[in-house]
Amino acid sequence: GKTHTTLGTEKEIGFLEYVLQNVVKSSKFDKTTFLVGVQIYNNKCFDVFNNNNNVYQCEDAAGKIHLRNSVRHHLDEINIRDVIHNVKEMRMNGISSENAASSRSHLLIQLWSKKCFLNILDMAGSEKASKSICKNRREMMENAKINESILALKECIRAVKMGKKYVPYRHNNLTKILKDVFFGRGMSYIMATVSPEQRNVKESINTLSYISD
Predict the structure, then answer these.
(1) What is the spatial distance between Cα 161 and Cα 211, in angstroms, rounded to a whole number?
(2) What's the pTM?
(3) Of 96, 160, 185, 200, whose CB is crowded by the most CB atoms within 10 A?
(4) 169 CB contacts (<8 Å, ≥6 apart)?
């Protein structure tokens, strides 16, 4: 799945570790390079590198989004494996109709080097309300907020694709934190998970349609 690919396992390194290792090995690596880690849960931001303390998004007069109260971890001062282990420990997880341990938050790792940055985003899995196995109000809220944020992201992608001047990125904290992506200040690549099982054909088609937008 997405989280397996991004964070890896005890036996296999994930995409995040692969990227960080190669940045450190690079001749262009600078000691000022740092990481910021935020998970978006129920449309609120939390610092996965600092005990899930609240992080606040602030937009300045120039339109730049700042993450207030987030801790910066300089890449030359950390153990990459320890960082990834900590992220896994802090991540909000729950039970879904498909997984016994499903990510219930969106995870964003930002890698900064001078004025350049890389976003690595592992999105929570969405599911239809009819297939949800929510047992209480909290779990219903989790699922609703996940679907709401994914819809907000789709609307932003659609607005960009159609060349609209107005992109509704302020409608959700997920899209707000990704603002630069929608205004041509970066490139995006998507990894999606689909199921080979016949019972999930509709969901797989919806996923492929979503990323094709």
Answers:
(1) 12
(2) 0.84
(3) 96
(4) 156, 175, 176, 178, 179, 182
